[in-house]
């Protein structure tokens, strides 16, 4: 599991690759903490390259979204597979996220 981070027009794009699970969560939490402390406010999570999204990871995304909003930022998801959307829907949190089919649409939504 790895995470790629790219800043495009002031928006931080996070791309997890592999399985986002309980064993990899501490790495992601640390990376997000570092990004938020450095001033990142608008985040796009591109989930196209993840294998599974268990409930712990969905909870992490929800907590991250709350932290971003508390810092006057915005967070959106993109590239979600049907399996990922199903997990978010099953947990009853899908409607709490703005979800876009592709990264370009997510970036456009966060442009001023």
Can you describe what's shown?
- The chain is an alpha/beta fold.
- The chain has a single domain, classed as Transcription Regulator spoIIAA.
- The protein has helices at residues 25-37, 55-70, 82-90, 103-110; strands spanning 2-8, 11-17, 42-46, 74-78, 98-100.
- A five-stranded mixed β-sheet has the order 1-2-3-4-5.
- A hairpin with a 2-residue loop joins strand 1 (2-8) and strand 2 (11-17).
- Helix 1 packs parallel to helix 2.
- The longest helix is centred in the middle third of the chain and has 16 residues, at 55-70.
- The N and C termini lie far apart (32 Å).
Summarize the helices and strands and which ones pair or pack:
Blueprint: E1 2-8, E2 11-17, H1 25-37, E3 42-46, H2 55-70, E4 74-78, H3 82-90, E5 98-100, H4 103-110
Parallel strand pairs: 2-3, 3-4, 4-5
Antiparallel strand pairs: 1-2
Summarize the structure.
By secondary structure, the chain is α/β, with parallel strands linked by helices.
Question: Can you give keywords for this protein?
Answer:
41% helix, 112 residues, 5 strands, 24% strand, five-stranded mixed beta sheet, globular
What value does the Rg take, in angstroms? 13 Å
Mean pLDDT: 92
CATH topology: Transcription Regulator spoIIAA
Helical stretch tally: 4
Based on DSSP secondary structure assignment, what is the total number of beta strands?
Answer: 5
Strand content: 15-25%
> What is the CATH top level name?
Alpha Beta
How many strands, what sense, and barrel or not for the largest sheet?
Answer: 5 strands, mixed
The total domain count is 1
CATH architecture: 2-Layer Sandwich
């Amino acid at each position: 599991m790895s995470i790629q981070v790219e800043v495009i027009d002031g928006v931080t794009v996070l791309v997890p690759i592999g399985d986002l699970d309980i064993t990899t969560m501490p790495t992601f939490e640390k990376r997000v903490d570092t990004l938020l402390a450095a001033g990142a406010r608008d985040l796009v999570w591109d989930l196209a390259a993840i294998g599974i999204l268990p409930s712990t990871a969905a909870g992490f995304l929800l907590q991250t979204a709350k932290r971003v909003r508390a810092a006057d930022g915005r967070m959106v998801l993109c590239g979600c597979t049907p399996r990922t959307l199903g997990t978010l829907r099953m947990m009853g949190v899908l409607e709490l996220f703005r979800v876009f089919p592709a990264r370009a649409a997510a970036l456009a939504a966060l442009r001023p």
